Records
---
Amino acid sequence: MKPGLSQARTLIERATSIVVLTHLRPDGDGLGSLLALTLGLDSMGKLATPVLVDDLPERFHDLPGVERIKSAVPSSADLLIMVDCSSMDRTGVAPQDLPRRPDINFDHHPTNSYFADLNFVDPEAAATAEIIYDAAPSLGLPLEPEVASNLLVALVHAWLPDSKCVAQDAPHGGRSNGTWRADGAPI
């Protein structure tokens, strides 16, 4: 288990209401990671709220759980998780407008400013979704079909030629389709 994951699991287990936030101008990795984590937390019996303070690109309107996305940050939460954000300003939300300081940060950008209490940042990962996928067993996060589908969308997006991600250069190279299929993603 990576350092900090047991602490993250304890924070998740103790929380009732959790806000999950991603970045402005969302891409497949940000949205897929946002929704995968939200749906996984729901499966654990948590009240998870996905937040995107920007317009949702039309190409992502069919992702599982997309109808749950809120455009404003709730005024309170027991836990705040950021996904695919290299810094706080990428969210479009001023720190004083957040319900609390970020507790957990999952990201793959080498420019990450390590702004949360627990930071799971791996610049060698193809996408933030890969980090969440690898952490899921340690966090107790179930990889049900809708969770796996969102993670797969995130990873595939990182490999698209017009993506600003650097997945093509990532040493891990992402998961094989067989692994994702085993977790229920319809490919």
---
Amino acid sequence: MMKKVFFLLLLVICAITPVVAGSGSTHSIRVGVGGGLDAGLTTSFNPENLYELESYTGFFLGPQADWRITRHIGVDAGLFWHKNKLSFNGLEDDIAVSSFQIPVNLSVAFLRTSLLSLLLEAGPQFRYNMLDKKQQYADGNITFDDYELSLNLGVAAEVADFIRVGAHINMPTGSFATIKETVTDKDSFRTSTLQITASILF
């Protein structure tokens, strides 16, 4: 279901962009820096698994660009270095996960004034894990996927046309890692997260 929503969103972006670009377009491109915090909301995971995910927190930071196609429609993208900490029941130590993530969001302003704009945002996000993919433990191992594709949905507020803050729910389309306790006993999990973001664009 998530993959169908993702591909439908891509089709909508591709269909809207050339139409709005030829009608009242401003073609304003801004660049800046953005970042934020994220926390796990829900986890698709077997609760009887030896390594039950207890908490998922992290932060991200990097360059960001915004293309304002018209006064009310734009596209923004970022290249963020992402650091997560995962805590599992059954493991003494937390696991630190480093990755790069590239969100690309279509933004629609339903309110825009000279001082304040309110935006609806949605789009895909690609994530590439940088750590040693396989983590070995006494009772088994955890293998992290090389990459993850997910969908962002959220809202944002832009103040004075250059400071933007927002909140997004990030929903993965596939697994994040595989838990393997024995040769035949294994399970995968994925986690939806809440992202609180802030950026400065010039």
